[in-house]
Amino acid sequence: MMLFRPQFLGRRIVPRISKRLLSSKQLIDIDLSHPDCNVTESIASKIGRNLHLVDHHPLHILHHQIREYFHDFECFDNLSPICTTNQSFDLLRIPPDHVSRSPSDTYYLNPETVLRPHTSAHQIDLLQQGHSQFLVTGDVYRRDEIDRSHYPVFHQTEGVKLLSSTNTAEIRDDLQHTLEGLVRHLFGDVQMRWNTDYFPFTDPSLELEIYYQDTAWLEVLGCGVIHPEVLANAQRPEAAGWAFGLGLERLAMILFGVPDIRLFWSTDPRFADQFRNYEVTPFQAFSKYPACFKDMSFWLTDKFHVNDLNEVVRDVAGDWVESLQLVDAFTHPRTQRTSHCYRIAYRSMERSLTNLEVDALQERVREDTVRRLGVELR
Ligand code: DAH
């Protein structure tokens, strides 16, 4: 489904986002040609896909189950992913020099506007508007590595609850009890453990892990008691409560047994037709097409960041790239120049790629890496 039509170079028409609602009937301009914009066309094309709202989609099924558990919470499923840096970082006490603010990690439309890197970006507004018990679910955007469990667009659910008690221990108990109940609702009777964690917007902060199907401990969510300054920023200095955030893809991969995060974006009927609304059924693997590996070595520049390379590769190969891995690094003893060798795995979910196609992709990756990153191939 193509929601976007190019208007002129570097500009796309995407669904207009009113303050609260993203509806595909309304249109808004995103200016991809802004000098500070690092959002690519392939990323912009994901805005409005809203996989958590697509009938029969595993993310929708999971989302439904979460909503079912939090039946007395208000739900915001359709807030615009275009947020300010204020909403996404400042008001949440994320320090000015925090790495998550860097353009190597976050998609900027301009210096004050980002594609939200987490659904926490909505906490303040909703609290300020008087909501006290709510879920926010939506797409979030992060420049990230390429492998089977990372994709630059994924979905999160945020939960916030204000309590009448201002006693931190009581709030924390309510939080832990509630989230343990959520995990049992989703996964049945699993072993769980709590670890302390750190988030600037909560104090104390915790993470919850589960031991699922005798494989390993898996982190399922981050949470904590909302920091008083965050509540003060929302003009509710008298309030107290808890918040959590979880990644839907991560949980859906475990619950449904989906082995590769790209499958969630696939329109291949062998994937899409497997699921029925409101039922968690194990994913039936269909034949995997062969992967093809290509290596590329180059001398780095000072400002080289691997996320820029990830993006070049994604822009050329789209969902045909499965992973990108650093396989070798060395610094020349005399010149002190550093060289990296990356291995790219190309694999389509939908058919076998021909050698010719992969060679052409690799050639374009090499050219674009030089052109966009200024590195020197070896
Ligand atoms: N925003 C965090 C992330 O994306 C997740 C999170 C952690 C949300 C703790 C919360 C929270 O609301 O209290 O990694």
Q: First CA to last CA: what distance?
A: 40 Å
- Taking pLDDT < 50 over at least 5 consecutive residues as the criterion, the unreliable ranges are 1-27
Secondary-structure element order, as H and E? EEEHHEEHEEHEEHEEEHEHHEHEEHE
Rg estimate, integer Å: 22 Å
- The number of strands is 17
Main beta sheet strand tally, sense and closure: 7 strands, mixed
Strand proportion: 25-35%
Helical content band: 25-40%
Strand order of the largest sheet: 4-8-9-13-12-11-10
Structural class: alpha+beta
User: How confident is the prediction overall: mean pLDDT?
Assistant: 91
Q: What overall geometry do the principal axes of the alpha carbons give?
A: globular
Structure description:
- This protein is α+β, with helices and mostly antiparallel strands and 378 residues long.
- Helices cover 25% and strands 31% of the residues.
- The protein has ten helices and 17 strands.
- Helix 2 (58-69) crosses helix 5 (168-187).
- The radius of gyration is 22 Å and the shape is globular.
- 3,4-dihydroxyphenylalanine binds at residues 118, 120, 158, 199, 202, 222-224, 243-245.
